[in-house]
Design goal:
The chain is mostly helical. The protein has a domain at 127-301. Helices cover 47% and strands 5% of the residues. It has ten helices and two strands; from the N terminus they run H-H-H-H-H-H-H-H-H-E-E-H. The protein has helices at 13-34, 43-50, 58-62, 67-76, 92-99, 106-117, 127-159, 173-182, 196-209, 256-276; strands at 222-228, 244-250. A two-stranded antiparallel ribbon has the order 1-2. Helix 4 packs parallel to helix 10 (256-276). The termini are far apart.
């Protein structure tokens, strides 16, 4: 509790850990300011650096979702070999190590930047590989946003349209618009609401045809999960040696917390591709609602479809 409040414990091992944390934070802050990063940090990042240890708020912690963005950027720079499936996070340690940056050594930041600024440096991503990864990013980001519509639609039917629950087409446009604004869902996605099941089926089928989804079921995007066998004990999750069976589960059948995690992955990666292709002129999650399709040929994943 003392550490969380920014106050050091009085004695013992906890005191040593606190002092070590303090030194680490000071080193990271000084490195960021003196290592040539100050002019590239966003306003929010600068404010975070100014805060006292233990005073970060929930919004600051959420900023960490951009690890997925960093993973994509390192891939674009040729420092990561592959982008994981959209139901798996980048390995943070591998992503960080790929930069070659040491928090306590400002020179490593200069080395990282200079390695790509040198005239003789030539790095590129194969065009086909880039197109495929952008296609995947757009498909999964589209699916994550569609889930927001599905959840919103169910909420409206259960709370405001109880008397006509089986007549989803009768949801008034003004109610749909109000809920979309409250949930920060782009209004361009509104046409999907009334025929969402049919559109999701068509999109899944198209994703399979394009080779973006490796599955047979065309009802919904498949998420690979590991299930315990029926014979497993009730506390099987605490026993790493118990056999688990990989299986595909429909995206819509996952829990709300899983949907949120999948959105974080998809949004973070899509932001990186949108920014790298100049579709996003400012690093802002709010501006993502204005981003259409990165690949103009990918009309299936554009907001109007």
């Amino acid at each position: 509790m003392n550490v969380a409040a920014g106050k050091p414990p009085i004695q013992g091992k906890s005191s040593f850990c606190y002092e070590r944390t303090q030194r680490a934070i000071e080193t990271i802050t000084n490195t960021a300011r003196d290592g040539g990063l100050a002019n590239t940090l966003t306003t929010q990042e600068m404010e975070m650096l100014k805060k006292e240890p233990g005073t970060w708020e929930y919004e600051d912690l959420i900023y960490g979702n951009f690890w997925e963005s960093l993973g994509v950027l390192t891939w674009l720079l040729g420092r990561s070999h592959e982008i994981p499936p959209y139901y798996s996070n980048f390995n943070k340690m591998e992503v960080f190590n790929s930069t070659g940056i040491l928090p306590g050594d400002p020179k490593t930041i200069d080395s990282f930047v200079n390695s790509f600024m040198a005239v003789q440096t030539n790095f590129s991503v194969n065009g086909d590989d880039l197109k495929r990864e952008i296609d995947l990013a757009e498909a999964w980001y589209w699916r994550a946003r569609v889930q927001s519509l599905i959840d919103m639609k169910h909420y409206i039917l259960e709370n405001e349209m109880k008397d006509i629950k089986d007549k989803s087409d009768d949801i008034p446009d003004q109610i749909i618009r109000r809920y979309m604004r409250e949930r920060h869902i782009p209004l361009s996605l509104k046409p999907l609401v009334k025929n969402i099941d049919m559109i999701l089926h068509s999109a899944t089928k198209r994703g399979i045809e394009m080779g973006l989804l490796s599955q047979i079921n065309d009802e919904d995007f498949g998420i690979q999960v590991e299930l315990f066998s029926a014979e497993s004990p009730s506390d099987a999750s605490e026993h790493p040696n118990i056999k688990k069976t990989p299986t595909l589960m429909n995206y819509s059948n996952l829990e709300s917390k899983d949907h949120k995690a999948l959105m974080n992955i998809a949004e973070g990666r899509m932001m990186a591709f949108a920014w790298a292709t100049q579709k996003l002129d400012q690093w802002s999650i709010e501006n993502m609602s204005k981003v259409g399709s990165v690949n103009p040929l990918n009309i299936l994943w554009s907001p109007e479809n």
